[in-house]
Design brief:
about 110 residues; alpha+beta; Arc Repressor Mutant, subunit A; globular; homodimer; DNA-binding; about 55% helix
Chain lengths: ~110, ~110
DNA sequence: GGTAAGGTCAACCATATGGTTGAATATGAA
DNA sequence: TTCATATTCAACCATATGGTTGACCTTACC
């Protein structure tokens, strides 16, 4: 899975990871805080964050003993371009996006 | 993996499947013809097509003994909306898309 | 009818994925 | 120093994924 599109799409295929990205849309967060709403171990979240980082979707910076996670939406660009090539898409429908966020953040612990 | 976004993104995470979608952008195709450029068994391609169909990205219709595959770009809409929520994306960059297609179709047999 | 073409199914295999736990490593605070 | 917090590592487990092969069904053709 060397192809960056492979990595980005695979990263996005997991609901936990999409929920994490949505959370980071609000603000940068420490690993522990990212993990808090999820019903899974910190180690599991740490792995998800690694996958997101390898796909370039987040950046992680360690400051002191806490590691901060920051959204890197630019990594979505290539995937977005790929998809746009197929369609006929409406101009950005932010309402629809808000609905997604609501759904995915509602109960991220049961993906 | 009940969530439709899960299915769509997972389907897109495989280079063979993305190449198939790109091929279908040109025209509807029979399963055998879809399989032709790939260095893998017909059965493998058949499975990929099932995954694409379950994600709603293609429709399959059997006419006579040949099964036709047809692109269903609408299935990309939800995923596209999700991604658009993160960005700041340029207006559709078709040149970039053409480059992707060129890359992915160049040698789909070695994903 | 017999035979070939188009696809799928079933069983199998190797590897990847998503999770767990417990131990280990920093770093900060008392 | 000692202790607690923040995070990762390593080993493990169950299941999913992407591929193979060979048998199978259906539909066309001679």
């Amino acid at each position: 899975m060397t192809n960056p599109l492979d990595q980005v799409f695979a990263a996005l295929a997991d609901p936990t990871r999409r929920a994490i990205l949505a959370m980071l849309l609000e603000d940068d967060m420490a690993v522990t805080d990212v993990a808090e709403p999820f019903a899974m171990s910190l180690a599991a979240i740490s792995k998800h964050l690694q996958i997101l980082a390898e796909a370039g979707l987040i950046a992680q910076e360690k400051r002191g003993r806490v590691k901060w996670c920051k959204l890197e939406p630019d990594a979505l660009r290539a995937a977005s371009v790929w998809m746009q090539g197929f369609g006929v898409f409406d101009p950005v429908d932010l309402d629809a996006f808000e609905r997604f966020l609501a759904d995915e953040l509602a109960d991220p612990s049961s993906p």
